[in-house]
User: What shape does this take?
Amino acid sequence: MDISPFSSIHAKNGFICDMDGVIYHGNRLLPGAAEFVAWLKAAGKRFLFLTNSSERSPRELHQKLARLGLDVGEEHFYTSALATAAFLSSQKPGGSAFVIGDAGVLNALYEAGISMNDVNPDYVVIGETRSYSYERIEKAIRLVQAGAKLIGTNPDVTGPTEHGIVPACGALIAPVELATGCKAYFIGKPNPLIMRHALKQLGCRREETAIIGDRMDTDIIAGIESEIETVLVLTGVTKVGDLPRFAYRPHHVLDSIGDLVPK
Assistant: This one.
């Protein structure tokens, strides 16, 4: 019988788990991550790694975890890039986009039937990328001013790496918002759209699901607004001293993901 403080979590059938700051920092696996994944598999839990990062495809995420020593199939990953592609496809089937982003979002858009267009696109889509330049931002601004809709894969301003905090989509898209006066529409957490996609892919109801993340402003608020039990881990962006700044609280606060593994 599970009498730990986390018995309500252990009883859940489904787990939605963030990656950056929860499972790894860059190319470094975080303590307890391997044990947590092993427990999910051994206990027969349904689980989905839901990441706001749009850089990588599910195949690349599978390969990344494999390099870190974790064997997780591609079906266990869902990204803001996939959610963005699904949204644009539903809004304007066969539409076009000018994209500032990496392979994850480019591949997702192609597969959803969205073509690349740097002349008169329906959308300007911005995600995480290291190929960020003044020239491309300048073009994005002109296209938005000409009528293209501004889409961000996620609202994260920063993200954790093994070298510290780095700019994320929210910071990269800010110059376009400021220069055009247009507010971007963000698809990733905490948008209810991506949460509904995640629950559908997981095959679980919200009552039998828990969400685990390292950010109050995306992971935890996404869970609260979706009425999913929330677990904040302190290995990423949000620290204990940050909690009083928020008007909402997670159901559980842990030092790391390893603390969730039944002893």
